[in-house]
Structures are given as structure tokens and as C-alpha cells.
Here is the input.
Amino acid sequence: MAKLKILTDGDTALRLKSRPVSVVNDRIRTLLDDMTETMRSADGCGLAAPQVGVLRRVVVMETEPGTVLELINPVIVERKGEQHEIEGCLSVPGRQGYTHRPAYVKVEALDRNGDPITLEGEGLRARCFCHEIDHLDGILYIDHAEMVDEK
Ligand code: NI
Here is the structure.
């Protein structure tokens, strides 16, 4: 595994739309492994491929320590309720803000073998699904957050 460089706000790659993965091969599995190592070493709970300069629809998450979720071509297929909580991003270091997110989301994706999976989340996990999938469309949470660190 290799630790990758995390791009920060201002880098144009963070603002581009990522392409779907057509074939889940060893290159994608290596990307997943490298992204997990990068996320963990940065103490993050989620990382999307464009944050490491790879414009493909790939996400890793670890909202419950020890449980890594790997998502390829993730799509939110259901949303319920609302939450207003604080969020941060490894690509926007040192800042935090409140966002409006669904309280619950259901996500469909492919796993590292290319098999379809369905995942659900509430609370932090729901926020993280939304935040990471937004990255795949070039959206940063600061675009719609009420920032708390600017006085
Ligand atoms: Ni982020």
C-alpha cells in the first residue's frame, strides 16, 4: 500500500466530475487500498478518489473504527429525514461547518469484486455517504455549509 497526497481546496481536480469505473480490476483494488491507508494516516473518516487526483467514482469510508467501506460507482437511492451537524474535510484542513443532510440514506455501489452492494447509514455514516459522493461531482461541503471558523 502507498500513502497518496491529498489535494486541498483550490486544486481544480476537486471541482471536476469523476468518471464511473467500467471494470473493477487490480488497478482499482490498489487504488482502494492506497486510499484507505491515506485516509487512516490523515485521521479521516472518508476519502473520495478525486481528493487524491484520480477522477474516478471510488470512495472509502471508516465511520466506525475498524470497519472500512469501499464504494465503487456509489449512488444514493433513498433519503429520509434531515440532520444539521458539523462537518469537515481532509481537503479543507482546519475548517468546519454545519450542513443540512438527510438523516438516513441508502446507497447502491459495487464492491472490490465488482459485485453490487446496498448500504444504509444514519447519523455520521449518512453524512459521510453524502459528503463523499458529492466529491465525485466536484462539490465540496463548504459550498453549502455555514462555516463556524470564520469570525
Ligand atoms: Ni471531503
Observations:
- The chain has a mean pLDDT of 97.
